[in-house]
Design brief:
Layout (H helix, E strand, L loop, with lengths): L2 H6 L7 E3 L2 E3 L3 E3 L14 H12 L4 E8 L11 E2 L6 H12 L5 E6 L15 E2 L13 E2 L2 H21 L3 E5 L5 H6 L14 H19 L5 E6 L10 H12 L6 E5 L7 H5 L11 H5 L2 H4 L4 E4 L5 H8 L6 E3 L1 H6 L3 H6 L14 H7 L30 E5 L3 H12 L3 E6 L7 H5 L7 H14 L4 E4 L5 H7 L3 E4 L17 E2 H6 L9 E6 L4 H12 L3 E6 L10 H13 L3 E3 L2 E7 L2 E6 L5 E4 L4 E5 L6 H8 L5 E3 L9 H12 L3
Parallel strand pairs: 3-4, 3-13, 4-5, 4-6, 6-9, 7-8, 9-10, 10-11, 11-12, 12-13, 14-15, 14-17, 15-16, 17-26, 18-25, 19-20, 19-25, 20-21
Antiparallel strand pairs: 1-2, 22-23, 23-24
Helix pairs in contact: 2-3, 3-4, 4-6, 15-17, 15-23
Length: 655
């Protein structure tokens, strides 16, 4: 380690111990569900995924939870903690992590009321018959014998984990999982010895913890992961949680505390996975306050630590001993390795778009907008194999899809020329990154731009492609990544509406005191960006859209907190409606279900948020040149950035 790295990250690279376990640095990969399992059993996808993160140099990896009971299995992609058929696969995961001299811990949990078992059609279990959301499944309230049954299953899961070779484990008291549900008055209204008083609500979680300690017999370190604040009115706030933290930390046999925030409720869980709208480590202060109640016990924490600089800042407080970087390691497993090699500028940044966790809600394996290789580590190596024949490829459009294709195709040895009609690369990322809470998109732009400019590709900005230009280029292939074509959405009586891009490009000072209507036809981040930015600039913003749900195309976790922020900014939202007439600033809105009309306004400006349409005319014109044509990103079909970067990477690996 050179002196510069030592100076900048002196706390990060200081060795550490948990119990008798030596850890080479203070960065860990927290437990996170991947949905890579098949029939609730580990797969080679797990093995390859964790091998790559172990090679990246993190100090500790905690793999995703083993679910202790069949009522906790939920989606088929989770891991069973009471099925011995899982043992060979778990051993493989442990072995690949150990091969890099990194300790492998595992989390053990029962998900409780939010573990809707879609495979075995079993009801979820919980302390009381209270669903996790207003529309959630009503759980089965556990009997005393079922409580004893689950405690026995925790013991079995401990033995399975030990037999698999894990070096340590943690029990989950937080995030609205079953033990947290017993702790919280929001989810526990029992009147027996497991409900009511603080002591009664702690009974089951503490019985589980003591059973696990007894089963372990000091064979490995044991930690407790918990939420320092439920972030729900009427739930366990920071003050109420201190007693629980103290009880867990002072229990014999506990080796560390892993502290974060939130519970599996709307919108609480959205804060647990704080997206790009929030600053780095937004709940650090809450965690630091726990130091006096846990004493000298090691304290781990996580929540939106995207850079080593953020981790260093937290560690420098002296209250935090290790920092979890989950989404950052999904985006780039080599954070530590690249830093130690002096290649920190080549780290693929996490921009906290939450596409990763969105996949879990959709019952799909995790992936990443920045790193489409997630879950494909074996089939899509970091350095793709060289193409059998180097082709001359013209890429039209330098947005995220065009840059990602150019980056990967150049690595394969193709001769790539990129034409971008704008003055610089970036496409819509350039203007989107100026929006309130969207600055991290600038990191995505900077990363892709640097990768392209440092490749062998020829980049020409200010160059618009015509069919004659394409014909004259004479390459082997044309890849159209020019973004979507704008589509006109006329509102009778309105001569001209602003696009989101035009609205974001205007002087923010011009918005103060104005009244803005956003007609939302995209339901996407573009609508949210316009609404938040204009409202923060002093405008009174109203959003009208046809679907029943606002911001319907934003992932569930980010949508939760986005709606909270819009409410705080007094943004008016009307769903199931569309503007049908504009008259001198007043807009007539028709409800799509009943046809009832109301008048809103007057509005200073109307902004229409659309996704646009695919580049059909351009594609047809280019095909007539006789050169094979592919399209990616919004030019192919307007979608989110996740689909754009994935399609670009996939195409570049096959041409």
């Amino acid at each position: 380690m050179n002196d510069e790295i030592r100076r900048r990250y002196g706390h990060v690279f200081r060795p550490f111990r948990i119990g008798k376990m030596e850890i080479k640095n203070r960065i860990f990969v927290p437990a996170h569900t991947t949905n890579f399992a098949e029939d609730f059993l580990p797969t080679e996808t797990h093995v390859n995924y964790h091998r790559e993160r172990a090679k990246g140099g993190a100090g500790l990896i905690i793999i995703e939870c083993l679910r202790v009971h069949r009522t906790s299995l939920g989606r088929s992609g989770g891991l069973s903690g009471n099925d011995r058929r899982a043992l060979p696969g778990l051993r493989k995961i442990v072995d690949v992590i150990h091969a890099e001299n990194i300790p492998a811990f595992v989390q053990i949990t029962h998900a409780g009321r939010h573990s809707e078992n879609f495979v075995e059609r079993l009801p979820a279990w919980g302390p009381s018959s209270i669903p996790w959301t207003g529309s959630g499944e009503v759980p089965h309230a556990m009997t005393r014998s079922e409580i004893r049954e689950v405690i026995a299953c925790y013991r079995d899961a401990v033995e399975l984990a030990l037999e698999a070779g894990f070096d340590g484990m943690e029990i989950h008291f937080g995030h609205g999982h079953l033990l947290h549900q017993f702790l919280s008055p929001l989810s526990n209204n029992r009147t027996d010895e497991y409900g009511g008083s603080d002591e009664n609500r702690m009974r089951f979680p503490m019985d589980v913890l003591r059973a696990v300690v007894d089963q372990l017999r000091d064979r490995t370190p044991l930690g407790v992961r918990l939420s320092v604040d439920e972030l729900m009115m009427g739930g366990l706030d920071a003050d109420a949680s201190r007693h629980i933290v103290h009880r867990a930390a002072t229990e014999a046999g506990v080796s560390f505390i892993n502290a974060s925030v939130a519970s599996y409720n709307w919108p609480s869980i959205g804060y647990h996975v704080a997206d790009m709208s929030y600053p780095p480590h937004p709940y650090l202060d809450l965690t630091v306050r726990l130091r006096d109640v846990i004493g000298a016990l090691p304290m781990l924490t996580a929540n939106r630590y995207a850079r080593l600089a953020d981790a260093e800042e937290a560690l420098a407080t002296g209250a935090i001993d290790m920092v979890g970087m989950m989404r950052a390691h999904i985006a780039d497993p080599e954070i530590i390795k690249k830093t130690l090699e002096g290649r920190e500028d080549r780290i693929r940044p996490c921009v906290a778009s939450n596409f990763c966790i969105e996949q879990l809600a959709l019952h799909r394996p995790i992936t990443c907008m920045m790193n489409p290789r997630v879950g494909k580590e074996k089939d899509w190596p970091v350095s793709p194999p060289q193409a059998e024949r180097s082709k001359s490829i013209l890429v039209v459009g330098g947005g995220p899809a065009g840059m990602e294709f150019t980056r990967v195709a150049s690595l394969r040895g193709h001769r790539v020329t990129l034409w971008e009609k704008g003055s610089s690369l970036g496409g819509l990322l350039t203007i989107a990154a100026t929006g309130v809470g969207r600055g991290d998109l600038g990191k995505m732009k900077a990363y892709l731009e640097r990768e392209v400019l440092e490749s062998d590709a020829i980049v020409e900005c200010g160059r618009e492609a015509t069919p004659d230009d394409v014909r004259a280029f004479g390459g082997d292939l044309v890849v159209v990544a020019a973004g979507a074509e704008p589509d006109a959405v006329p509102i009778p009586g309105l001569a001209k509406a602003l696009t989101v891009t035009e609205a974001l490009a205007m002087d923010r000072g011009l918005w103060r005191g104005t009244s803005i209507l956003i007609y939302d036809l995209s339901g996407s981040w573009s609508t949210l960006t316009a609404a938040e930015t204009l409202a923060a600039s002093g405008a009174q913003v109203s959003i009208v859209g046809k679907p029943e749900t606002a911001l319907w195309d934003i992932n569930l976790y980010s949508r939760m907190t986005a709606l909270e922020r819009l409410r705080e900014r007094k943004v008016f939202i009307q769903t199931r409606a569309a503007p049908v007439h504009y008259d001198g600033g007043a807009v007539t809105i028709r409800e799509t279900s009943v046809g009832r009309e109301t008048v809103l306004g007057p509005f200073t400006h109307v902004v229409v948020a659309t996704r646009g349409v695919s580049r059909l005319n351009m594609l047809n014109a280019f095909e007539r040149t006789g050169v094979p044509v592919h399209s990616i990103g919004d030019a192919n079909a307007p979608h989110a950035l996740l689909q754009a970067t994935y399609a670009a990477n996939a195409l570049a690996r096959t041409v």
